[in-house]
Amino acid sequence: MEILKTENLVKTYGEGDNAFNAVDGITMSIEKGEFVAIVGQSGSGKSTLMHLLGGVDKPTSGRILIDGNEINTMNADKLAIFRRRQIGIVYQFYNLIPILTAEENVTLPIELDGRKVEPEKLDEIMTLLGINDRRKNLPNQLSGGQQQRVSIARAIINNPAILLADEPTGNLDTKATDDIVSLLKMTNKTLGQTIIMITHNLEIAKEADRIIRISDGKIAEEV
CB of 138 within 8 A of CB of 99? Predict the structure, then answer.
């Protein structure tokens, strides 16, 4: 079952002679439950593509469909609700709120949506990611690897259609990197979570089901 599709996706910056396409006509399809790595050199367009898929930026032209919903045509309010419910994002630098505990950071998307936290669901995710004993810790009381685990828990608490991981190991040492990649794979296999991971590390990319290489804003290779 197709969970994400882009059709001739273009993002142009600048005007006239200074215009360039950071994303240049990308058409791709990702199946529900896939773990896909997107790789490319700096300036290849992979980060811009991630921003478009996450609804953080709007394409100049083309379409983005997530679980059948065309997000590029949504107004700001509708897109904000859709992103909160259907798109989980894991950042390189965690983006945790420093005055909230680990548990409060995880449950924040649900509370912003005006819903109640399901204790059983919270217990399952915190235990799965190995942070159940860190619930009451503030981010500055956690290691980098533990903070990234909290970030992943926050991203999947809503059972999103897709999880976008933007260089999720870029700020971690080797051991923490291995742990986070293993956790992403476990999340993919255990929960059936669809994951799209941006990375410059080819060894990490090889852990995915499929690798899409971006060059000059275009898909250069799929393996």
Answer: yes
